[in-house]
Design brief:
It comes from Coccidioides posadasii (strain RMSCC 757 / Silveira). The protein is built from 5 helices and 5 strands, in the order H-E-E-E-E-H-H-H-E-H. With about 210 residues, it is α+β, with helices and mostly antiparallel strands.
Amino acid sequence: MDFHLVPGEGRRNYTGFVTKTILYSATLLVFLTASALTLASIIVPKWVSYYSETPSGTKFHYSYGLHRRCSSLTQSCDPFPQYEDCHGDNDGSFCSMWRSVAFLMSFAIVLEGMTLITYIFILAGGKQMRETGWKVLTLFLVFITLVQCAAMALVSYLFDNDERFYPGWKLDKSWIMSVVSMCLAGFNAVIIYMTIRTLPSEGGYELIADNS
């Protein structure tokens, strides 16, 4: 049998092919998890919440989402922020920053959609896509990480500095989901970059002939 560990004309490095396919497939699963968390963080109105109880012992909570404000006392949610939240005695900068967070998270979803398309093209494409597509893929993942990081920073700033968030309020589930999503996107970017840079080309190494 004729095997080679050195490149040979017409021969293909199936190890490189399989490894890259596994890498892209595995990171795609991580990416889909991150995207689901991003979407959930936008839908679930629990970015900042206040939990307490009445003198009679009845527990209640208020929560702010990117687009809704909810109360367990009324069992309802209202659009947020509203006109009175942005005018009068309230600082208008809060609404501007809160809406910026909503925009950034929506933009992150758009970037994640573009990243998913990139994954599909890479996995469905040929050798050239697997060899070079990681550059665009990593760039999208870095953008997603930076956009979500900016959104997290804005919410954290408002939580620490806006007077409406007095002691008892806390960063809640939606904020945590977005942080996890951001970390997963950044993790994917690092893993893809480091792995692809060390893997041989698909036209690289093959087995040497065994003449014994």
